[in-house]
Amino acid sequence: MIKKLLSPLLLLFIFIFSGHATYAQGDLMIMPKRLVFDGSERSQEINLANTGSDTAVYAISFVNYIMTEKGNFEQVEEPEDGQRFATDFLRYFPRRVSLAPNEAQTIRVQLTRTGNLEQGEYRSHMYFRAVEGQTALGAEEAEESEGISINIKTVFGISIPIIIREGESTTQIDLNELSLNTEGENPKLSLVINRSGNMSVYGNLTATHIAPDGTETEIGMVKGVSVYTPNSKRYFSFELRNAAEVDLSNGVLKVSYAEDKGDTLATSEIEL
Description:
Radius of gyration: 22 Å
Number of strands: 22
């Protein structure tokens, strides 16, 4: 466990230029925003930082979620068919942190009792909750009703997935049901990501317009799109914010799904 008091500028520099994706809500920043144990490491670290102006206390625990076909998360107590929790094979320290303004701390996560893991993927989510009485992730608001003052406090939490992978991946991806809606300020592309196999996927969706003369123009992108086990599909849509640069009445619209700085998992096209 490492605890450091850093200047706001240095703190921002470390989190932005570290090469790892960060996740933030309220005044809590987390890096990286997901951990994957794939056999190469037995221990990894999560870095927390308080970017606010007040001391904040966070309780750390595990929760388990099922992902819906629309990408929402619902907390579950028992695994669905084809789902495995990672909680029994992980330990971490500390379980509670207090961070002064601009203070950072390291959480160590270790694998344990993994000798008899079955082939496939195990997933749980590490949950960081602002302890009641702290406002780092929440807000306070006073309302009055018939002379009675009511203090309303909302406390938020933030979670990141912790994934254990055992064995070789058999996962395959394809994209279908592509549909383009040109109504509204920005055109919107809808599609279905189909997943089969024993592990989840996580990557970026990119939409590229190919003009009749072969010119390719990237017109939309969204990062960090996942399909978790045991789901076989995910419905997804995103705006094509750079579509004004091209003519969507002709040519081809190609969408690709690729790992971050990795292999392309699937591509599909529609004629315009």
